[in-house]
Amino acid sequence: MQKKWWHGKVAYQIYPKSFCDTNGDGIGDLRGIIKKLDYLKDLGVDIIWISPFYCSPLADQGYDISDYYNIDPRFGTMADMDELLAEAKKRDLSIVLDLVVNHCSDEHEWFQKMLADPDGPYGKYFYIEECKDGKLPCNWRSYFGGPVWERIPGTDKYYLHVFHKKQPDLNWENPQVRQDIYKMINWWLDKGVAGFRIDAIINIKKALPFKDYPADRPDGLCSVHYMLKEAQGVLTFLHEMADHTFRPHNAFTVGEVFNEKPEELPDFIGDNGCFSTMFDFNGAIFGGSPNGWYDRTPITPDDYKRCCFESQRKIEGVGFLANIIENHDEPRGVSRYIPQGDCTETSKKMLAAVLFMLKGLPFLFQGQELGMENLDFTSIDEVDDVSTLDEYQVARNAGLSPEEALKAVNVYSRDNARTPFQWSAEKNAGFTEGTPWLRVNPNYVRINAEEQMGRPDSVYHFYKKLIALRKNPRYADTIVYGRLEPVWEDVHNLMAFYRRGEGQTLLVAANFQNEPRDITLDAPCRELILSNYENTEIHGNTIRLQGYQAAILRI
């Protein structure tokens, strides 16, 4: 594997709307990110991915972009962006932006020009189909519910949107669309951003011509995933994009990739891949049901272990994964992967240790370093997320009561991660002096950055230790490049693996239960590097793991 500048780094995602508000309007802004750069530097992260702040009507919280070249006034100005880039550079922090190019907003100039003349050149920027008989070109269901086709007012023509109807899909088959996108990407790279997180990118290649697939719900529609399984040629587009943009700039890129085919992995993230890395969603998609969230199977510690090891085996010798337990599209990781009732600071630290010791690039989501938890929504009226609102209706249509449907979507709602950052125990968690755009989790009085930064045994300080460990020259080569080798895979509620480097072997052992257990090593423990317990019992080759203890050992 060719060594790259980003391999030993740690990345951190900021959801700007919920990070830090400096003008009292209840919405986080770019100046809030500037204000907190020293916090991020002190934590030890290197790469900061910022979710969209471009001009947008916010139908999907900024993932519907109406102007790729400008900052939405809610978040600040281009002068703020320039200052952010300059201040980050002073601190040796790399800024990564969200690249949303499967679709734009229906308020984007291209779409507005299409509406004025669907048969003109901008009609070819989108997927436009005529439907005189009223039959839609295909029965795909959008990710947010309902058909993927929306009628163009005053015509018999329809446009395609695999997400919200205000997010028309861009037609990547049109070379002019691709050139316009590459021009925009290079504009930002020339400005000084270090790279991009690439949103929903598999969707840019459609299986054409449009056709129906077997319906998988009573609505007569089918998941877009059926089409994606048949789509061929996405990598041709992606390598062209990389050649025209990322590679000349030595940019860092992380793909949001679902539905990849195993044989394509080297093309995605190998030495000559189109991306630097891609997220591991194996744990996030576990238990999914075509019926909807209400029918999902909750993940157990043994399921989580299998998901992680399956991903690690898949990419060994190929490239790097970006490892997550949460992001802006997922619920809080501690609420998802720790069994109900066992979510404590001890178990949160254990989950963090496992994440950081997997092979790949650790990605933190804002507040993860504090162990922020899911919000218990008391009414569907408190929910903002379009996906959650759709899944609530799906559950109601399936016969669940309002209370049952709310409970079902509570667990997986994207709004769980989007609640304001908990900076302090002051009003609104110190996030804003105004009214927050989304309700603050009431547990901010006990879970907040100010309290944890002042307490050496906090979750925050344990994350700092893990980040420092990844960069410690004594262990860094093994942690970053060492082979991952699972051990004791069949032992219930135990997740353990070796990291084998040149002349050094580390063992990571995590006890996913309250009951202590003994593990016997094949070789003596030479050093206890880090644990979430103050004292660890080691007798010869036997180590006693307490409830939810994680231990990182050199053997």
Textual characterization of the structure:
It contains 18 helices and 23 strands. The two termini are 25 Å apart. The strands form six sheets. Strands 1-2-5-10-12-13-14-15 form an eight-stranded parallel beta barrel. The chain has a five-stranded antiparallel sheet with strand order 16-17-18-23-20. A three-stranded antiparallel sheet has the order 6-9-8, with no helix packed on it. The protein has a domain at 481-554: Sandwich (Immunoglobulin-like). A hairpin with a 2-residue loop joins strand 17 (494-501) and strand 18 (504-511). The chain is of the alpha/beta class. Helix 12 (345-357) packs parallel to helix 17 (459-471) and helix 13 (386-397) packs antiparallel against helix 14.
Q: How are the elements arranged and paired?
A:
Elements: E1 11-14, H1 30-35, H2 37-43, E2 47-50, E3 54-55, E4 67-71, H3 78-90, E5 94-99, H4 109-116, E6 128-130, E7 140-141, E8 149-151, E9 157-160, H5 175-191, E10 195-198, E11 222-223, H6 225-230, H7 234-249, E12 252-255, H8 265-269, E13 277-279, H9 282-285, H10 301-315, E14 320-323, H11 333-337, H12 345-357, E15 361-365, H13 386-397, H14 402-412, H15 415-418, H16 449-453, H17 459-471, H18 476-481, E16 483-487, E17 494-501, E18 504-511, E19 517-520, E20 527-531, E21 537-539, E22 542-545, E23 550-554
Parallel strand pairs: 1-2, 1-15, 2-5, 5-10, 7-11, 10-12, 12-13, 13-14, 14-15
Antiparallel strand pairs: 3-4, 6-9, 8-9, 16-17, 17-18, 18-23, 19-22, 20-23, 21-22
